[in-house]
Design a protein that fits this description.
With 60 residues, the chain is mainly alpha-helical. It is built from 1 helix and no strands. The termini are far apart. The mean pLDDT is 81.
Amino acid sequence: MLPPFIIEQIRQREEKERARREDNQPRLELPLDDRYPSPARRPEIEEDDPNRGVVILDLA
């Protein structure tokens, strides 16, 4: 078992490496302006009907 400080150092190195790889990935930037307004958000879905149930059919 490795000491905790070594595990933390390994984790930090892996995070830095992952961040470096993500920074090098090509990105597509889309020009967004007022011509294309964002779609209206749907209202939150109401909670399920409390009378809803489960039906189990045994076809044996």
